[in-house]
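[step 3/7] inverse_fold.run input=structure_tokens len=468
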């Protein structure tokens, strides 16, 4: 028997709760569209059993280990691999025991909600994770992971995932995507073009990445013109492998067009290692304009994910590398920063840009008015620190009155933790059902219209926005 309450995330007021239940039941079994995420496609190309619960659930998920680290638990003791290969804890049962003993820390967090749902509904666990139950739960999950039912491809099918997008560098050969497409398995797993490693001149491995881009293109990149040519070729190749979108994880949404001469000069200075931070920022702003220009030509949907100071904790970054929970939100401005891009491409019917934020203060003031005006601009859902029940509700409350429901793109899970995908989508569907139920109970929309909207939020909008 599950320890999860079937009415979780629904309003305690009986009328609202009843409507929310009906709306949620109408979409709970719809296929999952995951148009933006970070699951490694190698999982599905190789289709090997997951090693153990720690390797599957804890180690790839910075939502989990960042909170444990904040309470003084060393990342080495959680088995997080170091950059230099120095030793870390390899006893995964021991790591899981530490996780269980500190699981109470996740109370009230979206991570705790996702994990509870994952344990109960994916693995059939009937008791809560604690220090006392940790090893028993570990053994139950381990036993299941060794069965055919829990192979990556079978879980993918069981999760009812219709489309899963990965995130891939422009120099990636996409060999795992090719292997999946060549197999007899009919699942749709597609790449996403993420060029940050070569468009950010301040990237610590930028020159090495330019060399890798040249290698995969078959020629040396020695000029800005050859750089643009390479990016256009790689976008075309990604599109041939099923790609429908690009993604740009920039610190600022600043957009600005440089002259060809200025762009060439900056690029050549970067090749010589003589580039400053300000120059790198203006080049990134220029490349957002170039990516938008390319999108009008090849039809790839553009995603802009700004607003994080990456690798804030220098010690963690130096020892463990990026994506270890040290990316911290910063205050954002969109109205002026996107002005040049939207005035150039925002009225073009060939262009679509999906804009995200981690700054909730700009929802009603800037993002909703912009998306509520420009035909090409859509709004991405709450992301990272706002990807929570309260964050999703705040998003709907502040966006809907100006932009409506249909200039948003449904839900994205943005996760490396494959087994958590259905739990994350379930939370979104419950929260949206509850929000719509409140609207119906206040007679702002009728029940029939709410039924259409909940389906759009759970499925239709993502399919349309990402050309799936």
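[step 3/7] decode complete -> sequence:
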């Amino acid at each position: 028997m599950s320890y999860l309450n079937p009415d979780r995330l629904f309003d305690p007021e009986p009328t609202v709760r009843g409507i929310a239940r009906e709306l949620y039941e109408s979409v709970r079994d719809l296929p999952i569209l995951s148009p933006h995420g970070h699951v490694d496609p190698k999982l599905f190309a190789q289709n090997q059993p997951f090693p153990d619960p720690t390797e599957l659930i804890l180690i790839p998920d910075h939502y989990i280990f960042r909170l444990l680290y904040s309470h003084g638990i060393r990342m080495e003791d959680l088995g997080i691999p170091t950059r230099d290969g120095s030793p870390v804890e390899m006893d995964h049962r021991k790591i899981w025991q530490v996780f269980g003993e500190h699981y109470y820390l996740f109370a009230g967090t979206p991570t705790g909600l996702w994990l509870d749902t994952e344990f109960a509904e994916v693995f059939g666990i009937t008791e809560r994770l604690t220090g006392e139950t940790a090893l028993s739960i570990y053994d139950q999950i381990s036993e299941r992971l060794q069965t055919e039912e829990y192979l990556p491809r079978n879980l993918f099918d069981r999760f009812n995932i219709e489309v899963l997008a990965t995130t891939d560098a422009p120099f990636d050969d996409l060999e795992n995507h090719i292997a999946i497409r060549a197999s007899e398995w009919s699942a749709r797993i597609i790449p996403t073009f993420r060029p940050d490693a070569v468009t950010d001149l301040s990237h610590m491995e930028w020159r090495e990445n330019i060399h890798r881009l040249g290698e995969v293109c078959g020629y040396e990149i020695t000029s800005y013109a050859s750089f643009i040519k390479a990016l256009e070729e790689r976008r075309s190749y990604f599109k041939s492998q099923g790609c429908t979108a690009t993604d740009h994880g920039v610190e600022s949404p600043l957009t600005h067009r440089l002259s060809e001469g200025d762009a060439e000069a900056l690029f050549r200075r970067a090749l010589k290692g003589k580039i400053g931070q300000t120059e790198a920022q203006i080049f990134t702003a220029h490349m957002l304009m170039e990516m938008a220009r390319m999108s009008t030509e090849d039809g790839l949907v553009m995603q802009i994910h700004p607003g994080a100071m990456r690798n804030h904790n220098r010690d963690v970054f130096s020892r463990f590398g990026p994506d270890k929970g040290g990316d911290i939100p910063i205050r954002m401005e969109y109205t002026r920063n996107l002005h040049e891009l939207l005035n150039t491409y925002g009225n073009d019917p060939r262009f679509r840009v999906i804009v995200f934020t981690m700054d909730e203060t700009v929802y009603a003031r800037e993002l909703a008015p912009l998306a509520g005006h420009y035909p090409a601009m859509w709004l991405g859902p709450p992301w990272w620190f706002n990807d929570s029940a309260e964050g999703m509700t705040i998003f709907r409350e502040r966006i809907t009155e100006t932009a409506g429901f249909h200039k948003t793109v449904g839900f994205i899970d943005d996760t490396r933790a494959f087994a958590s995908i259905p739990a994350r989508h379930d939370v979104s569907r419950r929260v949206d059902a509850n929000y719509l139920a409140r609207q119906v109970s206040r007679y702002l929309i009728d029940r029939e219209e709410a039924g259409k909207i909940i389906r759009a939020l759970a499925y239709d909008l993502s399919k349309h926005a990402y050309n799936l």
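[step 4/7] annotate
The chain has two domains: 14-49+149-465, 50-148.
The domain at 14-49+149-465 is CATH 3.20.20.140 (TIM Barrel).
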